[in-house]
Amino acid sequence: MSKFEKRFGKYAISNLSLILILCYVVGYIIQLINRNFLLYLTLDPYAVLHGQIWRLFTWIIVPPSMLDPFTIIMLLFYYNIGTSLERTWGTYRYNVYLLSGMFFTMIGSFVWLTIQYFAGGPAQNLGFASIQVSPYFSTYYINMSIFLAFAATFPEVQVLLMFLIPVKVKWMGILYGLVLVYDFLFVGSLALRIAIGSSLLNFVVFFLTSRNHVHMSPKQMKRRAEFRQDIRRNSRVTRHKCAICGQTEDDDPSLEFRFCSKCNGNYEYCQQHLFTHTHVQ
Question: Where are the beta strands (DSSP E) in 136-226?
Fold first, then answer.
C-alpha cells in the first residue's frame, strides 16, 4: 500500500469520522422535518439503475438508527475509536478502510439485485423488493467494521460496559463477531447476508493484510506519534549551518551566516564564528 500512499496520500481526507457524523446530523434533521423523504436517499440499486443516481452518495447521510440518548453516546464512541485508528494507521490507510467498506456495500446491493433478476419475476416486483431491502445496505455494518478494526488494533484497551463494568475491547470484539456470524447464518435473509458480508469485507481484507501489524496501547500510540514528529522535525532540510557550532536558521532565525573566502572549500559560519574560526587549508 505504500506505493499507492505516496501517489494518492495527498488526496486523503482528514477527520473522516467527523465528516460521517456530520452527515448523520444532516440525516437526523431531514428525519425530523420529513421522515418519508429519507426513502428517496437510501441505497436502492433498482432506483439507481432507473436514473436516481444521487442514491449512490446520499445513502451515507441516512442515520443507522433512531435518534435517542443511546445513539448519541454510540456515535461519540465511534467517533473516538475512528479518530484513534486514523492517528495510528495514518489518514490515508483509514480513508481506504472506511471508503472501501462503503464501496463494497454499494457493490453488494447490486449483487443482490442481480441475483433477484436471474431468479425471475416481473420488474415491478424487483422494484418493490429493492425498496424493502434498501435499509439493509446502510452504514450500520460499516460502523461495526470500525469497532472490529479497533478491537483488532487495540485488544487490551478497556472500556466501561454500561458505564460500570471494565471490559477489554477484544472480548467485546469477539462477542460482536459471534453475533454477526449468528445473524448471517441463522437470522438474516439473503439480502441481509449480502449486506453483512459486503459491509464487513473491508475488515476481512484488513485482517488478512495486517498479520504483521503491531498491536499498540494508547501510550505506545502516543510515543509513536511523537517519534514521527521528531523524525519530520529533524529531517527538515535547512539552508544554512555553521561549520563550528552546527546552528541553523531553525535554532535562531536572527543568526546571519556567511561563507569564508579564505577557507579551502565551502565552509559556512554563523556571525559568532565567522571571524574567530581557524581557516581550513
Answer: 158-161, 165-168
What DSSP designation does 241 have?
B
- Residue 186 in contact with residue 250, Cβ under 8 Å? no
* Structural contact between residues 156 and 172, judged by C-beta atoms closer than 8 angstroms: no
Question: Which element (helix H / strand E) includes 269?
Answer: strand 268-270
3-state secondary structure of 6: helix
Grid cell in block for residue 65: 438508527
Read off the pTM: 0.70
What's the distance, CA 72 to chain centroid? Answer: 20
More confident of the two residues 279 and 61: 61
Please report which helix (H) or strand (E) contains residue 154, including its range.
none
With the C-alpha atoms ordered 102, 95, 63, 83, is the resulting torsion angle positive or negative? positive
Is the CB of residue 49 less than 8 Å from the CB of residue 114?
Answer: no
* Sign of CA pseudo-dihedral 31, 33, 39, 41: negative
Averaged pLDDT score across all residues of the chain: 82
Cβ within 8 Å of residue 243, ≥6 positions away:
267, 268, 269, 273, 277
Please state, in angstroms and rounded to a whole number, the distance separating the CA atoms of residues 18 and 78: 10
The C-alpha atoms of residue 36 and residue 62 are separated, in whole angstroms, by 12
